[in-house]
Amino acid sequence: MLMLLLLSSTAFANDFVGQASVIDGDTLEIHGTRIRLWGVDAPESSQLCRGADSNLYRCGAAAANDLATFIARRPINCTPVSEDQYGRSVATCSAGGTDLGEWLVRNGLALDWPQYSKGRYAAAERDADRSGRGMWAGSYVEPWLFRKCIRAGGTPTNCSDDANAHP
Q1: Phi/psi of residue 6, each to 5°?
Q2: pLDDT tens figures, 69-120
Q3: Measured between alpha carbons, how far is 1 from 67 in angstroms, rounded to an integer?
Q4: How far apart are CA 95 and CA 78, in angstroms?
Q5: Domain ranges in the chain?
Q6: Which CATH fold topology does 14-138 show?
Q7: Residues 107-158: pLDDT tens digits?
Q8: Which of 17, 39, 86, 136 is the most exposed place for a label (fewest CB within 10 A)?
Q9: What is the DSSP letter of 42?
């Protein structure tokens, strides 16, 4: 019985549960541990998108702010999946039973990242696209392409420009 109890407590010790701070649109912090949301990619904090009105807006900041509002200090439960190259835990996380990755994608605040998700959030992304929510209301550059442009010496403005944008 004691062995079963020890195995159970070890399994639960790997999960992260608690109040989260939103670092950016796809990164949380719980009890001092950075957690990258699995299977989704939100725009970077400095990233710009065009809204339905064709005006530029900080879509990365919007994703982070909307996620913080949605979480609203509720407890977050995260189940680790892996670790990224920066040493962050990569996890699926939920608030009140809602998968945060799916919520972000469904609201057009992040994209399904099929390289990692294997299409888990593809239906939520199609729904956001059809409904014109979030980034789908205007144009944007996929966050992974935006980061590649920045690493190549681009600026947030020219890496977000219409030549690179997804309509």
Answers
A1: -65, -40
A2: 999 989 999 999 999 888 889 999 999 999 999 999 999 999 999 999 999 9
A3: 42
A4: 9
A5: 14-138
A6: OB fold (Dihydrolipoamide Acetyltransferase, E2P) (2.40.50)
A7: 999 999 999 999 999 999 999 999 999 999 999 999 999 999 999 999 888 8
A8: 86
A9: P
